[in-house]
Structure formats: C-alpha cells, structure tokens
Design brief:
Structural class: alpha+beta
Shape: elongated
Number of helices: 25
Radius of gyration: 29 Å
Cofactor: [2Fe-2S] cluster
Strand order of the largest sheet: 2-3-4-8
Largest sheet: 4 strands, antiparallel
InterPro entries: Rieske_2Fe-2S, Rieske_2Fe-2S_sf
Distance between the termini: 24 Å
Protein name: Rieske 2Fe-2S domain-containing protein
Number of strands: 10
Pfam family, one: Rieske
Organism: Halobaculum marinum
Helix content: 40-55%
Oligomer: single chain
Bound molecules: FE2/S2 (inorganic) cluster
Length: 600
C-alpha cells in the first residue's frame, strides 16, 4: 500500500532495491490499483486492471519492454501503455520518481483524456475493426458519461453508409429501428440497444469494400420534375451510378425531406414489392435516420440517401415472380388500377374518408378483386396514402397475430415482410403525399392477400382475462421466451396483461428487454419496432392488443437463443462498474477487482 505523504501528488510505494529484487509490486493509491514494474533498469507504473477484461496485470509477463496479460494475451508497450492489440485498448500509465532510493508514483494517469472523448474514439475503433466487446463498452461508457444517444446513432450511421459499397444494410436498419424505440426502454436496455445496433452495423461492413461516391452534376437549376424523371429512368435500367449522381444533384439543389422522399419512394414503387419489401423499408429507415440526426447537413444527407441507390437499382421485382403472375396475374391487376390512379385521387379531392367498419375484413378477403375494389373506393372517397397504409398495416399485423404455427417456420417471415413493408409505407406517407405512394399501399395489400393461407387455420386470438394479475402476466411472458415454441403462451400473457389494465408502456419495455438480451435476428428487430409503432398509433384497445400480440408471437417463435451478445454486454457493463469478470474470488481494490474503471 502506498504511503500518502506527498504534497506534489507522488506517493511512496516501495524501496527501489526491493522492487528490483521482486520485479514488480502492487499498490493502491486513492482507490486506483497500480502495478509497478522494475524492468531494464527503469521503473514503470500501469493500471493493474487489464483494459480488455480487467485481469490483474501484476500477474502478467514483462519481456523486452512488452507487458503481456495472461488472460487473452493482450500486449502493452510498458513505458507508454499503448497496446499492440487494439481489441484490448491502451492501459493507463502513471508518473514515477525515485527519490533517495524509494519509488514514488503519482496516481494521475499520463494520458488524461475525458471519458466521453475516449469512448468516442473507442466506438470508432470498434466499428472499424468489428470489435463487439469494444462496442459494448463504448455504448455503456458514452451513455454513462452523458453523451446523447442521437450522437451515438449518428456515428454508427455515418460509418455504415461510408464503409459498405453495397450501401444501406440490415445493420443500419436495426440501428435506426432501435433508436426509434429508445424511449420505451429502461436505461440499461438503451445501452443494449445501441450496442446491438452498432454491432450489426460493424458486422455488415467488416471485410466489405468502402463506398466511393458519384458526384452531383455541376448544372444548377434543374427542375424537380426533371430530376425525378432522371432518377426513375436510371433506377429502371439498373444504373446505380447515374441514379446516385441525380440524387446528389437533388440534395445539392436544396430539396428537402419531402421532395427527396418523393424521389426515392416513387422509384421504389415503380416496380412491385422490391426485394420482398426490404428496398422500401431501407428507404424509410434511411429517411428516419436523417429525422434523428438532422437533414441540415447536405453532405451527410447525400451520403445517407446515396447508400440506398444500389439496393433500389439491383432489387428483385415482384412482378417477375410466379406468385404475382399465377394463378392470377396480380401485377397486371395492379397496372390496370394504377392507370387510373390520378383519376381516383382527383375524385377524392376535398373529400374526407371515414374507414368503413368492414374495411379490415375486405382487406383480408380471399378474392383480390374485393381488395382492389376496397382500395379504389377508399381513394375515390378521399382516403390519403397514410389512411390506407394504416389500414393495410393493421390487416398485415393481423396476419402475424393469426399466423398458424403449423406452417413452415420460414413463413413467419412471409407475413412479417408484408407487415413491416406496410408499416414503412405508412411512415413514408407522413413525409410525402406523393400519389405514387398509393402503389406501395396496393403492393402491401396484394401481399396481405397472398399471405391468406398462412392464416389457415387462424391462430386463436386471445382477448385476455380482466381479472389477471398484470405482474403475473409479465412473468408468464418472460417465461414464454425461455422455452422454444411458446407462441400462444406469449400471446395469452400479452392479452392478459392488457385486459387487466397493465400499462402498455411497461409491456413494450418488457418486450424490448426480451428482444435485447437475445441474439435477435434482423426480422425480429423489425417486427418489434413496427408492432410497437402501430400499437402507439391506435386508440382502439383490441387493435393495440393485436399489434402487441403479433410482436410477442413472432418473438416467442424465435426465442430463446444462445444469448452470446448479452454475455458480451454483461461483461462490458460489469467492467465499467469496476467489477471483476475473470471468475476469481475475493477481489480487492489493490488487485484491481473492485475499483471503478476509468480506462478501456
Ligand atoms: S487480455 Fe487481459 S483481460 Fe483479456
């Protein structure tokens, strides 16, 4: 133990002769565990906690100026603490003086970077090198040090769109979806959400070539209609480079969220249901990312939106698939209605549409003409894209809530794709009233029709027990996620909770926690976000229940998982709380086990 007798910040630690004989010693100064080494006639002091996972560095090896931790063999340049292994982080070093044969150490680290700055750097390192533990530590470290989650999301988005030639990815979609739901989550789950999203972004970019930009045209003053036409033509012929130049020109010309969204969603609906809805969903998520971080930076806006172009240009078009052509030519039915879309919209101008009581059932009909007629009548009666997308979203989430578990497991994704696509169309309609977007509504409705056999027989739709105990229902929901195949148990737990006047906010938080402790896949993240969004938008209790039952059923079908990501997160959180994670017992301040961590 160091003697606290210094006025200049240095503390007496050990006689130099003793240190020379022993090679190393461990001390604690002001609660900081410090390993002091005598090596090659020099005295060096470093934090005793390995910045990787906290193993005591006094138990490491020192050779030729390199300190090696014995747990995962991270190596540190002993004099400055810099690591040879970026996954481990640099270790703090401390000033040392030898006075009259006695070693003194000052506990202020030589490198005293503010914690938030440190974790920003480590976040970038974790993204660049796809380091899961570093990303977990960064998410915890940044939020614990008061950094706004929007900044963290923004760094992830900027990295993701710059470092993947193929552009916007599922990882970026997950990051933005989780960012949208942060208000539902408790403090620890917000950290988990950022960690999970950032991990997905880093994984998507790992080993991928970076994105190289196409420039905006030098020409100025090109009309929006001309830019829109050029953009559609380039996407039509699958010329991603040409489309990117047009898109960047539109950004440079100062067009805002409404026009830029119109540009993208029009091209995204020129063909049917691109890439089973993912292309449109990515468009929506990219614009939501800009809603979060701001549309005010033209360079960032252009980079984010340009990341969508390759996906739009290369997407599979549903009219090329047999299910849209046989036994009924649904693509041709769409074209026939689209030919009179302008006339339908003109008829509805000035009208206020009220959703008929049987509208959902008509959208769920077994006959496509019934579905097309319901939509056309609604448009002619003044229904907006947002009105219809909301109605179709509810029909689609009903398909998920009624999905029969006797189907092939993969078909969960079929109903899921329809739902998240419809939800994305509705979200996009909040940003633009482009007539072209009605085509997205029709695409979603056609898929609701195509998914009809996946509700045969329909799964039971629990209404819940009003006498249930909400706490018991939440516990039953948690238990349903602990065993495979507890789909109906999860549905019943949600219904009971809501019927017993449980707070929907608590239910969303509980679902969010379940989502974030599992090795959740892309679709399940999407399902949770879309269902919670739809639940938030509905005043009707039965509709809200359907949305949350759908989320719980989908999640229960996919859980439990190995939870390896949660293990990493737990390690990071414990390390930053100063807890020991190496499994050794009896940690003390001096061995580095129970001292609050300020380093990597
Ligand atoms: S290398 Fe030191 S704890 Fe992992």
């Amino acid at each position: 133990m160091a003697v606290d007798d210094a006025d200049d910040g240095f503390h007496e630690v050990i006689a130099l002769d003793d240190l020379r004989a022993e090679g190393r010693t461990l001390t604690a100064i002001d609660g900081t565990p410090i390993a002091v080494f005598h090596h090659e006639d020099e005295v060096r002091a470093v934090n005793n906690r390995c910045p990787h996972m906290g193993f005591p560095l006094t138990e490491g090896s020192v050779e030729e100026g390199v300190l090696t931790c014995h747990w995962h063999h991270a190596r540190f340049e002993l004099s400055c603490g810099d690591t040879f292994d970026p996954w481990a982080d640099d270790v703090d070093t401390y000033p040392v003086e030898v006075r009259d044969g006695t070693v003194y150490v000052a506990p202020e680290p030589r490198r005293s970077e503010p914690p938030a700055a440190h974790w920003r750097t480590r976040l970038d390192d974790g993204l660049e090198q796809n380091l899961r533990l570093v990303l977990a530590k960064s998410a915890v470290g940044l939020l614990d040090n008061g950094v706004d989650s929007t900044e963290v999301v923004g760094r992830g988005v900027r990295f993701g769109v710059r470092n993947r030639a193929d552009g916007w990815s599922s990882g970026l979609t997950i990051l933005v979806a989780l960012a949208n739901r942060l208000p539902d989550l408790d403090d620890d789950d917000r950290k988990r959400a950022l960690y999970q999203g950032l991990t997905e972004v880093a994984g998507d970019c790992a080993g991928e070539p970076p994105k190289f930009d196409q420039e905006a045209f030098d020409a100025t003053g090109t009309s929006f209609d001309r830019l829109l036409s050029w953009f559609r033509e380039n996407v039509e012929v699958r010329d991603a480079d040409g489309a990117e130049r047009v898109l960047r020109t539109a950004v440079a010309a100062g067009y805002g969220p409404e026009e830029l969204t119109e540009l993208l969603v029009t091209a995204a609906t020129d063909h049917r249901y691109l890439d089973t809805g993912h292309a449109f969903d990515f468009v929506n998520k990219a614009t939501e990312a800009l809603d979060l971080v701001g549309w005010d930076d033209d360079e960032r806006t252009a980079d984010v939106l340009a990341s969508l172009v390759r996906g739009l240009a290369t997407a599979e078009r549903a009219e090329e698939s047999s299910s849209w052509r046989q036994p009924i030519d649904l693509a041709a039915m769409c074209d026939e209605r689209f030919d009179r879309l302008d006339a339908m919209v003109a008829d509805g101008e000035g009208e206020t549409w009220t959703e008929p009581a049987d509208f959902t059932e008509r959208l769920l009909a077994d006959d496509p003409e019934t579905v097309f007629d319901a939509l056309e009548e609604a448009i002619r009666a003044g229904a907006s894209v947002e009105d219809l997308a909301s109605a179709v979203s509810f029909a689609a989430v009903t398909r998920v809530a009624r999905f029969a578990t006797s189907n092939e497991f993969a078909d969960w994704n079929t109903v899921h794709h329809t739902f998240t696509f419809a939800n994305a169309v509705e979200r996009a309609a909040e940003r633009t009233d482009a007539t072209a977007l009605y085509r997205g509504v029709v695409d979603a409705a056609v898929n609701v029709y195509l998914d009809r056999f996946l509700n045969t027989p329909p799964a039971p739709t629990p209404t819940g027990d009003p006498d249930a105990d909400p706490e018991t229902a939440l516990e039953e929901l948690r238990l349903a996620f602990e065993q495979q195949g507890q789909v109906e148990q999860a549905a019943s737990a949600v219904a009971d909770f809501l019927a017993a006047d449980g707070d929907p906010e608590r239910l969303k938080a509980a679902l969010g926690n379940a989502l974030l402790v599992e090795d959740t896949n892309f679709h399940t993240f999407q399902a949770y976000e879309a269902a919670c969004r739809q639940a938030d938008r509905r005043d009707d209790n039965a509709e809200r229940r359907t949305c949350l039952v759908a989320a719980a059923r989908y999640m229960a079908a996919h859980y439990p998982t190995r939870r390896s990501r949660e293990q990493t997160f737990s390690i990071a959180a414990r390390l930053l709380r100063g807890e020991r994670v190496d499994g050794a017992d009896g940690g003390t301040a001096a061995d580095g086990a129970s001292v609050a961590e300020t380093d990597g």
